[in-house]
Amino acid sequence: xxxLDRTGRPEAGIDAGDLVREDRIHRxxxxxxxxxxxxxxxxxxxxxxxxxxxxxxxxxxxxxASYIGTQPVILTKDENGEIRVLVNRCPHRGSxxxxxxxxxxxxxxxxxxxWTFKNTGDLVGVPRRKRYPEDxxxxxxxxxxxxxxxxxxxxxxxxxNPEIEGLVGYLAQAKPYVDAFLDLSVEGEISLSAGANQxxxxxxxxxxxENGVDGYHAMFLHDSxxxxxxxxxxxxxxxxxxxxxxxxxTEAFSNGHAILAREAGDKTIDELKSAHPEYFARLEEKHGxxxxxxxxxxxxxxxxxxxxxxxxxxxxxxPVSPTKTVVNMYPVMLNGAPEELNEQRLxxxxxxxxxxxxxxxxxxxxxxxxxxxxxxxxxEWLVLLRGIHxxxxxxxxxxxxxxxxxxxxxxxxREWRRLMTMDGEAK
Amino acid sequence: MTSxxxxxxxxxxxxxxxxxxxxxxxxxxxxxxxxxxxTDDATYWIPEGKDDLDPKRETSILYDDRFRMEDRVWRLVxxxxxxxxxxxxxxxxxxxxxxxxxxxGEVVVYSNFAIFEVRRNEQxxxxxxxxxxxxxxxxxxxxxxxxxxxxxxxxxxxxxxFMV
Lengths: 427, 164
Prior knowledge:
The complex is a heterodimer of chains A (427) and B (164).
Chain A: E1 20-21, E2 24-26, H1 33-44, E3 49-53, E4 62-68, E5 71-77, E6 83-87, E7 102-104, E8 107-109, E9 116-118, E10 123-125, E11 148-152, E12 155-159, H2 167-171, H3 175-182, E13 190-191, E14 197-201, H4 205-211, H5 218-221, H6 223-231, E15 249-252, E16 258-262, H7 266-275, H8 277-295, E17 298-303, E18 307-310, E19 313-321, E20 324-331, E21 333-334, H9 339-353, H10 360-373, E22 381-383, E23 392-393, E24 399-401, H11 407-420
Antiparallel strand pairs in A: 1-2, 2-22, 3-12, 4-5, 4-7, 5-6, 8-9, 9-10, 11-12, 13-21, 14-20, 15-16, 15-24, 16-17, 17-18, 18-19, 19-20, 23-24
Helix pairs in contact in A: 7-8
Chain B: H1 12-27, H2 31-35, E1 38-47, E2 60-65, H3 66-77, E3 89-101, E4 107-119, E5 122-136, E6 141-150
Parallel strand pairs in B: 1-6
Antiparallel strand pairs in B: 1-2, 3-4, 4-5, 5-6
Keywords (chain A): 2Fe-2S, Dioxygenase, Iron, Iron-sulfur, Metal-binding, NAD, Oxidoreductase
Domain Rieske (chain A): 48-133
Region (Disordered) (chain A): 396-415
């Protein structure tokens, strides 16, 4: 590839390496249009990106509109049961070919000139075709396939980078935690059948990236939520664990992944066991008491660059512009769990994480305030050094910190900087 | 089917008076009085993604029982709910009111709403349809279920922490 990248524009003149230090982030990282364009090419076009869950396309012909960075794609299940990710862009004159958020169809027809594609991407219909040359080969103008698609236990990722390592390797040290998140289902399978709470906020996508593994902000920003938890302890609330500084840990894994985790308290476990005794007995029997305890922990797992497995939800970050972001929060239904438990999980999720919730909207208020504050050009840097003085490097290469340390964010920006300063094709 | 005015438990005029009073309590932030309009077994519901769904299996913007409504009011009044600092100012229009008898003896009132909301110098408009299931109590009319169907409930939303 020459100096023109996939978007057909010259490489940006910014050196992203100057914008991130080990303990400082430059304000330009959150607002500069050239940085954003470069992120789409050097991060979202190179890594594995979460595009959807198998349960969203269960039947042949099911489809779901999704995104890789700002690029529109379609997740489809074709007639052979294969899950594909197609670029949602007509090869003819550029329109999207799928205008619905989800549905079932074996064909996509471009609204502009009526070119028709099978859900495998194959071009099968061109109206009034005879005005094209006789040797016009339809097969050259199929919908573009995203070259790499992999599914880990139902989580579907895609990558525009044909050279990228396999998904399991990419998950690195985060994989055991992804497994633990999914193993809360006694069948080892989750479903996103309950739909999503959709959000947008006037701020950069990385505020959400940083925030889900930020164990420092909750005790202040979400104080009102903890008070509500405390006011009515006998009732169902979003299961955000103790604010106690001593409980839990943070970890920065390879490839920018991270976790904020807090062990489940005896009270939480007892409550759930007494409310749903049969289910949790089955789960404990399946995994043994030690592993069972781990499964019950609060895990905020971040898979770089756009996925959170967090509390009761799958959270997907979609950058729209330097200062606009869409976030979809899917409450996780546990396959094999009694309906009452999944219903309880829905109510817990909504309490915190709808647009009217008691937790998420306060985060978005903070993000909007940061975006506004960063207009202050005279103050250039943000500080990310909390806990840096005794961060531990573990044998498996990950870095370990206290629950309110900025260890995860430093890890995210190490990967950000690595990708943003790497020319050419990434591995 | 709308029953004839003679047999109806609630006239349109009475339904409007009730809805206008509720609207005024919300816009004036008299939320403790607003809570008193509801029965103890009340549900306050805003579906997400579509106007109708199974709340046992699908997510909503909110699906509050009376306790969570009280938590919601507490958060707005005491909190602090950072998403409501400074608080939204709202004023809402209620129109197209229709009254139906339901089979279980409750009265169902449909209406359209438009809420003008201003916060931090930005004005936004939210519109939709209300469905109020009302029960005639011993002393007064009470809301057994309030459902708000936003026309933009299938779009990404920002800060719906004021009262709809």
